[in-house]
Amino acid sequence: MNQEPEPDLMRLYLRHCAIGFVLSAIFVGLILWFDVVGLRRLVMGSDIGWLAVFLQWFFNGTVFGGVQFAIMLMLNAEEDEDDGPQRGMTIPVRAAAKTKDRMI
Q1: Which helix (H) or strand (E) covers residue 66, if one does?
Q2: What are the residues whose beta carbons fall under 8 Å from the beta carbon of 44, sequence distance 6 or more?
Q3: Is the pTM of this model over 0.85?
Q4: Which phi and psi (to 5°) does residue 34 adopt?
Q5: Three-state DSSP class for residue 77
Q6: What dihedral do alpha carbons 60, 64, 67, 71 form, nearest 10°?
Q7: Rounded Cα–Cα distance for residues 80 and 87 (Å)
Q8: Residue ranges for the chain with pLDDT beneath 70
Q9: How far is it, in rounded angstroms, from Cα 100 to Cα 104?
């Protein structure tokens, strides 16, 4: 049997989550740098603005990490070797339908 060993999924997931959090840091940094919808002024003017930046980084990192992992899994999917019908040949059958006449 020439079968490749399965990848360590936890290590793979953590690696792609780390990539997602790095991308999130870049994304939040760009949002603050370009002052999108006045977010930088709002964060700098508040005494707990660091919390808003942290939460934005954390939630975007969660999403970006999940997307990174999903893309990696989809790119490693194997193609089906059997392209034929799965349940044999299908034959159409005519079925009579009975209805009651209704007045609308």
Answers
A1: helix 49-75
A2: none
A3: no
A4: -85, 0
A5: coil
A6: 170
A7: 16
A8: 1-7, 80-88, 102-104
A9: 12
